[in-house]
Amino acid sequence: MAFPLRWTDSLGADTLEQVVLRCITHCTNGLHGYQVEPLQLVLNQEDLIFISGTGCGKAALFIIPLIVHREILAHPELYPAFPVKKNVVVVVITPTKGLANSIVSIMRLSHIHT
Question: Which InterPro entries match (predicted)?
């Protein structure tokens, strides 16, 4: 019996980096090292608590998985057969309207419906 692919494997990290470089054109240097493992956990549907300073890329931890699911569904021939979902829902709770507006702006730039 074949084991399912997991995002926490090295192939998962490579695929994640491929999707980011292909789909997020302003991210020319790829992900920050501290973002890779949390993103892999999110994509594996594992629980995660991530604490970092302002402007360190926490929003990427829920925006990039949406982009990954959308990209692999649109171009399955380009990527290994990782489990992805057609309809992904993310609920974001923010303490301020300013932060909420910032997140909505980032998501719209990524062509994600809010």
Answer: DEAD/DEAH_box_helicase_dom, P-loop_NTPase
